[in-house]
Design goal:
The structure holds two protein chains of two kinds. In chain A, helix 1 runs antiparallel to helix 3. Chain A has three helices and no strands. Chain A is mostly helical. Chain B has one domain (about 5-340, about 395-480): Up-down Bundle (Sodium/glucose cotransporter), CATH 1.20.1730. Helix content of chain B is about 75%, strand content about 0%. Chain B contains 24 helices and two strands. Classes of the chains: A mainly alpha, B mainly alpha.
């Protein structure tokens, strides 16, 4: 049986976890919805060499890359929080 | 557990095993390509792919057979994150994603990207809000979590109803897809081909449960991703000289716009919001994302990882493997559209490329109607079924038949793997939650597994029988799964972890109200209630009904929870423990 964390440790840990959750969801919201709200304006911009319209690129590829990186970044951050409070596995 | 060491050896050797398997698979493709050049008939290439891949899946299913409850329901909780990611990828990408996604993009242009976004971004929600906590909880099924968290069988039962209503139409569509692919490539009539696909599904899932399905899905992912990427990589190389279609299709999009301007097509392919209003575009993304994070057959994949940390990493890998296909789909669509605009449209109807004839004529997936009778094909005179884009690309690119066979094997793998996962989610809810938790809690492990397998076969046969009747209504209801799942399950799952105050009354009323509003809108806007379809609300299309169900479920659940006493201390302590990775699962995995 591992040592059980105290109430204070649990509360601090959850507070940090919640902040990270909010940051992650804000980034998620920006790349899921917000930037595609500018799709019409971004369609006037062409990415050099590759030739994509910025609006199409973000919806078809850019946001997806952000999502993948976001999850790995989030996992690393959350693991660090768990370590910091000594509640990791 | 007698085979403990054998199991850990197996886990350690996974990379080697699947690398060998991938090599062997590529070897088969090359051998078949050589045989084709030597005059081996096309039909036998189709048979070889079908028989060979299904035998591999069956072999894995038989090797993974198990008599342990923990293995059957959660693969012994020892699936490494990367492999769970591949399995989730195959679980997630259905026959329709594989065959139909690029076609939808071809038809819808920019607006089709709502599907690409919606079906990827949801994994962020899975990773941040749900997967690690559900893994820590240690449930066998999603209703199991709801039943324990909300203290009783009422919530468990509503969970099962929502699960069944979003998963059953979905599994019927997958079995239908296996039937279509089998009959197209083997000449077995569709009504029987459906049952051939069913055998492929049952050998994987029945003997080994989650364990069998996991290792089969990894094998299926490898086949489907190779089959998806290869034709479009070759096409990209042929047209642009660079074998990275995901980068080169930018210039192809530019050429498409130029061609469209020359041909006087007003709706430009890359122009946003020409098919959907912005409201519907965002509503669809919203429903697909929250639906992704609520679908039980996806969430249960994260019950199988060895730790909470691994569950988190595993969501990242899942999205990475899904991303590989979804960021290629728009490239697929662009190359197909470019070929059609440059090689087909504006040509004399008597001198079209041969693939137009192969997929037109009797097959009927391409229709040409020379409306103005000038003998020249206009863009508007060409009707293309969405499925053709992926299935016909090998021929559009002038590739040998072996690639067409490979594409069929890929579509078949995609449909089978999704069907496996769905079937297991449905059958496990009945055997674990209804039978074991509600009817006979004293059942011994052996009896539980017998019940689980019997129910699995019945659900599978029922779905196959339904699929064999070609039920058009059922097939069009598949898209409903996301809105239904999100309206019924998202609020109780998320609040169950993130809001300690959420209680049983809140969950019951929230789930019911969200689910019923969503169902009302879906049925109402499609068929109506006796007097023809009801009008839409705020112009939101049928497929995005979750836009109404999801907020209603949250509001009702929060208000009803606050109006009634907080959950008992026992449950609150349980939530405290769910929130930290340390310590064993909340529901003990009994050593059975």
């Amino acid at each position: 049986m591992q040592e059980q964390p105290t109430k204070e440790v649990r509360e601090e840990h959850w507070k940090k976890t919640k902040s990270l959750m909010i940051v992650a969801l804000v980034i998620w919201f920006i790349f899921s919805f917000l930037i595609h709200g500018f799709a019409l304006a971004f369609s006037e911009i062409t990415i050099p060499i590759l030739g994509f319209k910025l609006g199409y690129y973000m919806a078809g590829q850019g946001s997806l890359i952000v999502f993948v990186i976001l999850i790995f970044w989030f996992s690393a951050k959350q693991n660090a929080i768990d370590e910091e409070f000594g509640v990791s596995e | 557990m007698g085979n403990g060491t054998k199991d850990s050896d197996f886990i350690k050797n996974l990379p080697k095993i699947y690398a060998l398997y991938t090599g062997a698979f590529l070897g088969v493709v090359i051998v078949l390509a050589i045989l084709e050049q030597l005059g081996f008939p096309d039909r036998y290439i189709g048979y070889t792919f079908m028989v060979l891949t299904v035998s591999v899946y069956a072999g894995i299913g038989i090797l993974s057979r198990t008599v342990e409850v923990n293995q059957y329901y959660v693969a012994g909780r020892q699936v490494p994150p990367v492999f769970n990611g591949m399995a989730t990828g195959a679980d997630w990408m259905s026959g329709a994603s594989f065959v139909g996604m690029a076609g939808s993009l071809y038809v819808l242009g920019f607006d089709g990207l709502a599907f690409v976004l919606g079906w990827t971004g949801g994994y962020v929600l899975v990773a941040v809000l749900l997967a690690p906590y559900l893994r820590k909880f240690g449930a066998y099924t999603v209703p199991d979590f709801l039943g324990e968290r909300y203290d009783g069988n009422a919530v468990r039962l509503i969970g099962i109803v929502v699960l069944f209503s979003c998963s059953f139409t979905y599994v019927t569509a997958q079995i239908y897809a296996t039937g279509i692919i089998t009959s197209r490539f083997t000449d077995i009539p569709f009504e029987y081909a459906v049952y051939f696909g069913l055998i492929g599904i049952l050998v994987c899932s029945m003997l080994g449960g989650m364990r069998g399905v996991t290792w089969t899905q990894v094998a299926q992912y490898i086949i489907l991703i190779v089959a998806y990427l290869l034709p479009v990589v070759i096409l990209s190389t042929r047209i642009t000289g660079v074998p990275i279609p995901q980068l080169t299709y930018g210039t192809i999009l530019e050429r498409i716009t130029d061609l469209e301007m020359q041909l006087g097509i007003e709706q430009l392919y890359v122009q946003p919001f020409t098919n959907y209003t912005p409201t519907n575009f965002f509503a669809l993304i919203f429903c697909l994302m929250l639906g992704t994070a609520s679908l039980p057959h996806i969430l249960m994949r994260f019950f199988t990882t060895p730790s909470v940390k691994a569950a988190r990493a595993s969501v990242g890998w899942s999205l990475f493997f899904i991303f590989l296909l979804y960021f290629t789909a728009p490239a697929y669509a662009a190359f197909a559209r470019y070929e059609i605009l440059s090689e087909v449209v504006g040509k004399s109807i008597s001198a079209l490329p041969s693939w137009v004839d192969t997929w037109g004529g009797n097959v009927g997936l391409i229709k040409i109607n020379d409306a103005n009778g000038d003998g020249i094909l206009q863009f508007a005179e060409l009707m293309i079924n969405r499925d053709v884009i992926v299935l016909a690309t090998p021929e559009i690119a002038g590739l040998p038949y072996v690639i067409a066979g490979l594409t069929a094997a890929g579509g078949f793998a995609a449909a089978l793997s999704t069907a496996d996962g769905l079937l297991l989610a449905i059958a496990n809810a009945f055997s674990h939650d209804v039978y074991y938790k509600m009817i006979n809690p004293k059942a011994n492990p052996r009896l539980r597994l017998i019940i689980a397998r019997t129910i699995l076969i019945f659900v599978a046969l029922f779905a196959a029988a339904l699929a064999s009747t070609r039920p058009t209504d059922i097939l069009s209801m598949v898209a409903w799964a996301f809105s239904l799942a999100a309206s019924g399950l998202f609020a109780p799952l998320v609040l169950g972890v993130w809001w300690k105050r959420a209680n049983k009354t809140g969950a019951v009323l929230g789930m019911l109200s969200g689910f019923i509003i969503c169902l009302y809108y879906l049925i109402g806007t499609r068929w109506g209630f006796g007097n023809g379809p009801i009008g839409t609300w705020f112009g939101i299309s049928n497929i995005s009904a979750g836009v109404f169900g999801i907020p209603v479920s949250f509001v009702v659940m929060i208000v009803a929870s606050l109006a009634t006493p907080p959950p008992p201390q026992r449950i609150q302590d349980m939530i405290d423990n769910v929130r930290i990775p340390r310590g064993g699962t909340i529901i003990e995995d009994k050593a059975e």
